[in-house]
């Protein structure tokens, strides 16, 4: 009998034995095409030789040294690489072990920054109903997924949720997509005014929404307006690129396409591409300098911050993505895949929308394509799809949930950037 405490306690799972390129294999030899990189993690596929070599070399040199005593070469070089390739004002990189830790750290950095600046009343966090920011208590409180929050609600800090930018569901027939984006962005200003501008700390948002609704990009102009509103009231803009970052949408950072720059940005998943657990929080020098010149100490920290082996893996991943041009294939391959999905599913009676950016794609599942009416059992349909696809040798990421009181179900696809047309 197994002593592992699994995610699903009533499911028998196959045992994974190896990975190669875009495929995973179980111990029976069955192959699975990793069409979602687990949950948008494995952007380089499996067994990338350059990443494996970098990890082995780092382990041979020194696997771990605590950041209370040392910095390390791979951590320094990874931070440089990220900042060199991050457009806008981001200047410092705080390395953590995963996505939840990155968003949790972002919230705490935001709060410590205003605290040290003397703006001690700033405490309200605003986020969107269509969002997932992680599973630690602060990150969970920030996310808008009711199903994930429900059992823990007495433990969660108060957060304020506004509408998402979800044109398929929210745009009115007589409205342009631009006007729709301005209308939903206006909810941010309204909420700030309602809470009192001096009391609002941050707005946390995924540039392209992942797990809660399957690769939903914003409409044009939405983020520009959001940035303006945040600037007007001194509210920090925290972008959660844990899922959509690191080249997944066709640019290294998803925010590049929006023509804005955040105050803080969280990345993970594709950062280590699954070769090591790692996440990062990037912030502006303005934020960093307030802490440097104030207490001189970010009052946060985990044992595995800046883990040298994880940093070496992420540095090797970044080199593959940027220097070897792997990330450059995302936009053209994504365009081909979306065309193919539209050909196959574009008229399917139960697929309401085919959408996404780069190799971050989503299919919205509906009961009725014309009316967009969802199935009543929003979690059962994705679960059945996941099992059927897995049985057939395809790993994809179907999910369901309730957004703005409406049910929704979707399949998220996030295949490795090394996929080829034949796959
Ligand atoms: N933020 C977003 C947008 C995510 O999609 C996720 C995970 O799916 C997280 C945060 C949490 O990341 P992790 O599961 O690595 O803790």
From TrEMBL:
Matches recorded under InterPro entries: Aminotrans_3, PyrdxlP-dep_Trfase, PyrdxlP-dep_Trfase_major, PyrdxlP-dep_Trfase_small
Keyword set, alphabetical order: Pyridoxal phosphate
Transmembrane feature ranges: none
Residues forming coiled coils: none
Family indicated by similarity: Belongs to the class-III pyridoxal-phosphate-dependent aminotransferase family.
Protein's recorded name: Aspartate aminotransferase family protein
Source organism of this protein record: Shimia sagamensis
